[in-house]
Records
---
Amino acid sequence: MVVVVVMVLEVMVVVVLVLVMFVAILVMLVVVLLVMVLVMVVLMVVMLMVVEMVVGMVVVMMGVFVVVIVVMVVW
């Protein structure tokens, strides 16, 4: 009887440990996914800012180019 109780307790301890490990792995996976999502969002924002800067530079260059052409034609 005592042996059976000890075996049941051991099995219960093992099951609890496995469940804790499983939960810990799940939590780590969720944290990793959240970090990846955050990194993706930051990269998207940075990319958008860079694209906006490049587009702005191109627009400014085009404007200067058009102004130069107009001045040349007028001259």
---
Amino acid sequence: MARTKAQLSSGARLADYLTVGFLAMQCPVGQVRLALEKSGAQSKRRRGLPREVLVYFVMMMVLYADVAYEDVMRLVVEGLRNLLGEAGLESTVVTKGAISQARGLVGEAPLRQLYEEQVRPHGPPGMPGVMFHGHRVMAIDGSTLTMPDEKANSDFYGHLSGGYGDAAFPVIRFVGMTECGTHTICFAKHGPFEEGELTLAQSVMDHADKSMIVTADRGFCGYEFWQRGLRTGAKLLFRVKSVQSLRRMQTLPDGSYLSEIHSNKNLKQKGQTTVVRVIEYALDGIPDAESSYRLITNWMGEDAPSAVELAALYHRRWTIEESFDELKTHLADRKVILRSKRPDLVKQEFYALLLTHSAIRKLMTEAADRTQQSAVDLSFIHAVRVLQRRIPFVGAIPP
């Protein structure tokens, strides 16, 4: 059942306060305080709202996207009072303007640090969809999020082309790397709309390692980005554009073949080529499928998976689109995804969104593991609803 401002103002249910407890389990107060200290954003005085409260507030406003700031803050204060031991919180009344000012003092850094330290691939190796031939399955892709049409946001982030519908709102562009078996967006980089996905993807790719196989769509299949991926030690599986020339050098027993990619199609000198394995295939009987697909991989040799296995694996990368959809339609479910009206607070809210999404995904993974299911088979919408109703009381959670 959707919450309204009137419902919360007339008296929140105990379950609303308990939601804060779930966030405190996933981002313990001790870790929040450490992140505040490292970023220089810890409270200088114990008067007013502790900065820890502001961190949980930004995460809670993601879950309660259509609820007034003041009501969300009341839920956070009531839910955390036992845990923080702040007697003064009981009588604290905070206005919307004061909340925005306090959020500005906290800044982006603590939430970014919490995200970078707390959110990692976490799918159990035995869970369906998590691993492929001993490697954790990851996907990299980009998307956008809308925000309020304020001048500061518009000047900093820019708009989609056009001026109607979603294009009427400023947008933040981001690239993320998702663990396909859990839908968790483990690494991400954001920037203004005019900053290209391939630019943002550089630092995201750096988080890959030899335990992973990273899949990517054709928009990321450039020589320099491929080289960057190779340096991480990860297995790579990228789709290539139909216009890219790939000369067949050696045909392999499974029908795939070896070829070379070049830093510049007009420059093929030594040191500017890399050998790749090419997999060409078609999807028969699949509606709307393209006539053919081509993938390249650095996974070759006797222990390499077959071309059919790799082709099937590539299409699991679409789970990253489902992860982005969860951010946009299941958590926010409105035309303007982010609520913040200033660029510094947009950045802060971006990491709060990823932290909250990850917390829900961890809950779902734990539930799926207990029942020997795949985490991606569980309903994200149902998990959000369960989260708002059945979380243990926060006072029982250690700091």
